[in-house]
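Thread: AB hydrolase-1 domain-containing protein, structure

OP (GT): Posting the sequence first so everyone is looking at the same thing. Length is 458 residues per the record. Can we get the structure tokens written out before standup tomorrow? I want them in the notebook alongside the other entries.
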Amino acid sequence: MAGANAAAGKSSPEHVAGEWYSVPELRLRDHRFTVPLDYSLDRSASPKISVFAREVVSVGKEEESLPYLLYLQGGPGFECPRPTESSGWIHKACEEFRRGTGLSTPLTASSMLQMKSAEDLADYLKHFRADNIVNDAEFVRLRIDPDAKPWTVLGQSYGGFCAVTYLSFAPQGLKQVLLTGGTPPLGNGCTADSVYKACFEQIICQNEKYYKRFPQDIEIVHEIVNHLAQSEGGRVLLPSGGILSPKGLQTLGLSGLGSSAGFERLHYMFERVWDPVIIPGARKRISYYFLNAVEKWLDFETNPLYAIMHESIYCQGASSRWSAQRTMAENEDKFDAIRAAKEGRPVLFMGEMIFPWMFDEIHALRPFKDAAHLLAEKKDWPPLYNVVALNNNKVPVAAAVYYEDLYVNFKVAMETASQIAGIRLWITNEYMHSGLRDGGGQVFDHLMGMLNGKKPLF
């Protein structure tokens, strides 16, 4: 190997580099880093976890000295999709960059059961927020690049939150930053309350658009809600052993209302809600197909960390105290599914909200109910952002702000942008929150153009 990447393939006790392998038009190499769980402790005293990064280049560029781009995936708690070919924004990025995709020691529904108590689990999970993701990123940067040059960071959704933490506390590691639907609230305390309150208007708007597109689903959803309410205990069993209640049905909006093709996926799922009546007089039943689809819809079986840690990503020196539950109480009349069905109003789906009752109803989350409560009450969360540093930012930043974003409210995003010196904004309603994935290479290309002079200020 040559140039700046010559040492990237060398291994050490802290960094193990794998062999190159291939997918169509790409060459990939895996890196595993042994990093401290708790960076506040002496490195020798802290427990260790493994951080994985996948290096990706275009075929034939393995030996070239290329700059690095670090991609930070949305979440929290979701791994980066594995590249299977050179397409979309990956294709665009590999024209100029190497790309690393990170995932930490996997915290799954099974691996977290190794913890002896809810207290032990909560104490472990407190280290898995943006502050330590940035620490991990700097650990990797200093070891993967022998010259330790600043790199470009692309943050999607929660990955953008992490990128702003990076700007706050380790700007020396950054060459430039791209944010796609990932501009976080900066307020002190717990900002979850203000986020949820700001999002209700867009949630209702997305519901209205959905039912305008698929008006027949108003009656279908009424039938489902009434069926669930009239079933024993006001719910039916899911294949895993969890339960589906009317409010559980409303959580389908988390994915269905805010991403590209979400409306269509939700509608087509409702097409298969009922079992066919094969025997005359047989009792009406919700189909196994639909119940199985509901469980897979939200990914809690495979990614429980998202639910457990969700509200903590908004906390600095204050507890969330189940913010979604408290703020929803102020809008209960609008989101009461049983009441809406009785009155003939459209049943409103919810947005990105995690509630304590989910840890009773969702089978994969039940073992972590007590740990989730401990995290919801935790007050001494460390800072995630430094507003003074952001006000004096010198790192070039470009952000795609989606006008109708269900997850990162437009008004909140604009308030944050006003605090980041030098940021350039691309405000658009052409894409939803998933624009980076849906737009091929267009979103990535547009933001890079804003930073490299192809799209000058005007």
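GT: Both are above now. Quick notes for whoever picks this up: The radius of gyration is 23 Å. The CA atoms of residues 251 and 350 lie 5 Å apart.
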